[in-house]
Amino acid sequence: SLHEEEEEEEEEDEREWCCTVDCTDDNSPPAPAAAASSELAGDSHKYTIQDIDAPGYRVIIHIDLDCYYAQVEMSRNPEFKGMPLAVHKKHMVVTCNYEARKYGVSKVMTVSEALDICPEMILISGEDVTPYREISFKITELLEEFTPLVERMGLDENFVDVTKLVEKRLQQIESSGDPANIVVSGHVYGNQALNIADAKHVWLAVGSQIAVEMRTAIYNRVGLTGAAGIAPNKLLAKLVSGTFKPDQQTTLLPESIPDCMRSLVHPVQVPGIGPRTARRLDFLRINTIRGLQTFPLDLLEKKLGITVAQRIHKLSFGEDDSPVIPRRPPQSLSDEDTFWRCTSLDEVRVKIEDLLINLLIRLQNEGRVPRTVRLTIRRTSVSNKWFNRESRQCPVPNQLMQKIYTGPFDTVTPLANIVMNLFQKLVDTRLQFSVSLLSVCFANLIQPTLSSPIKGSIGFYLTQKSPGKLDMSPDGKVRRQLLRESG
DNA sequence: TGGGGTTAT
DNA sequence: ATAACCC
């Protein structure tokens, strides 16, 4: 049963909801918080606490870029400004801008449905995510200038742990006896009043000001807008960042946590509870947050296993200890393509070579070498409606990678041979077969060392021969030729 | 739905 | 190698 989510129609401008101090909802850089709603009452309050790990005192910001792919396309082509625009992959709309939403266009709609509603809409294929990936990393790097504690989620979301930044600012405020104004920037969830005598409130308020600075920096330097949520943990920051959507931010004060959790209609809306777990909860007649909160934990543990049960039970109360995990070099690189069917070994080989070529370019940009290669397929079958993927993996022979990096570029072929071998492990090619997805993944990525001299070979050729490494033709043909030439 | 990623088992 | 999660 594929779930059909109804589109949450986010209405903009519910400003009366935002009683709080300094609504910064427009695209212009937010006004410096000049309006003093509340003031540090001399030295009668102590906001800093000695133990930065004291429970409840983390300040996490979740930043969620607005309709990301569509926004990138609009910023790349200013002539699209004000026009309805959607980005699609294959037949599906994956993102659209707010102009398109006014017509009723939404994600999870086919391209033809969207065009019926809005024939003049601009359609852009987003199958090649390279530009989105690059801008996404720019934004993460920008956030890392504030603090290294930035965790990426997909291409358009980041978590930032600003606890230490907040600490620092509060120390400054206290030491410089400066009558700083402590206000919340943007919305406060549930319109709760800020209590400056409450250290937790003050910490989050300072966090909200950092969030404004981050959003402003993203707008000024990359030209994109986003929503932010500020809360004591990742779960809540993420939940609350969605409450006021385009280009606004929301802070959650601790007293509103129960309301915030109860605002969710179904457990599947809790990040961390996926469709699978949600279905199992449904079988247990747990279909509200309240139901999950009150369900006996020991019974839940027996039904779902101890780790999942304990985790989601805590999540239902808005509790989440998980740390913000700073970015590391990627653990894997993959490329995939779907199609209606692919039924011959020759076709399979062509597609696999194409995937490999793209991957080798990315690998070279990362300067990494894979120890493992994995092939994943989906069989086209009518009965198997259910999204099944199967994979086989094997080590990449070390000398092979060396040859690929140093040698003539027809050496994709040996790698393709290896992947074809994996294919034959998955599919009995003596019989008729048909697959609708091919995915190649390089995993177990290592940094080449002096003992495995791999650096600067293919990279050398690519940078010499193609100034625009990354804007080559999307079908891989140009790349293939370039690579051949380089040999 | 698509084209990516992650961690846990 | 699979299964769950995220976007």
Question: How would you describe this structure to a colleague?
Answer:
By secondary structure, the chain is an alpha+beta fold. The protein contains 17 helices and 14 strands. Strands 6-7-1-9-10-8 form a 6-stranded mixed β-sheet. A 4-stranded mixed β-sheet has the order 4-3-2-5. Helix 7 links the parallel strand 9 and strand 10. Helix 13 crosses helix 15 (412-426). The longest helix is centred in the middle third of the chain and has 24 residues, at 199-222. The chain is globular. The protein starts with 59 loop residues before the first strand and ends with a helix. The relative contact order is 0.10. The chain binds a DNA duplex (9 and 7 nucleotides) through residues 2, 68, 88-94, 107-110, 126-129, 133, 152-157, 271-277, 307-308, 330-338, 374, 389-393, 439.
Task: Write a brief structural summary.
With 487 residues, the protein is an alpha+beta fold. It contains 17 helices and 14 strands. It is globular, with a radius of gyration of 26 Å.
What is the tally of beta strands? 14
Beta-strand portion reads 15-25%
Helix content: 25-40%
Tally the helices.
Answer: 17
Structural class: alpha+beta
Which overall shape is indicated by the principal axes computed on the Cα atoms?
A: globular
Please tell me the overall pLDDT. 82
The end-to-end span amounts to: 51 Å
Biggest β-sheet strands, sense, barrel: 6 strands, mixed
Major β-sheet strand ordering: 6-7-1-9-10-8
Uncertain segments are 1-43, 453-487
Q: What is Rg?
A: 26 Å
